[in-house]
Amino acid sequence: MTLFAGMPGSSGSIEVVCGPMFSGKTEELIRRVKRAQIARQKVQIFKPAIDNRYHDTEVVSHSSLSIEATPVNSSIEILQKVYDSTRVVGIDEVQFFDESISIVVEKLARRGIRVIMAGLDQDYMGKSFGPMANLLAIADNVTKIQAICTVCGAPASKTFRKDPKNTNQVLVGETDLYEARCRAHADFFGEDQDQLAFFVNLNESRSKTQNL
Ligand SMILES: [Zn+2]
């Protein structure tokens, strides 16, 4: 593989498909991977061992498209399991991986591999999920997909957890636990707390500018 490094047209790439739950991220990952297979490129798919919602060794989308996937316990394991002949690496539910995932995908891309990842960009609190902020920064191509808000039918970018008492960031589940919501209906903290936080930030940045 190093033989081709630096040759035109052989450079790898990093793609991220992200959005809330029920937005069709996994379907998009499967679509890209299947096109690569049609082009006779060797493909390997990985997913975190934590996500066993449907099947242990397959990536399955909500619309039950599926493709074979290798469950791994850490990002380094991906590096160890990619064959020399592999041209495309797909990673599903990438938000569940450790921070080293960005180093791993950069290494793969440098080896000329096209890396396609799908994952939740935000957790149920609307904050960047695990390694996602960094992955979005290093990606060559980012596709954000929206779902449909279950309350009003508007495009939805947020994942809403139905039981607010459960504060575990990693809670694997389906429609029984989560809904897609638009910004207005996600309402994570309530208006009052939002405004308070905004003013605190504003005052902080004012005092910083005065000190300059
Ligand atoms: Zn809404």
Automatic annotation (TrEMBL):
Q: Where does Zn(2+) bind?
A: 149, 152, 182, 185
The residues that the entry says bind ATP are 19-26, 92-95
Q: Does the keyword Zinc apply?
A: yes
Q: Which GO terms describe its cellular component?
A: cytosol
Where is the protein found, in the record's own terms? Cytoplasm
Please give a single GO biological process term from the UniProt record: DNA biosynthetic process
Question: What's one Pfam family the UniProt record gives for this protein?
Answer: TK
Q: Where does substrate bind?
A: 170-173, 178
Protein family per UniProt: Belongs to the thymidine kinase family.
Output this protein's name: Thymidine kinase
Corresponding gene? Answer: tdk
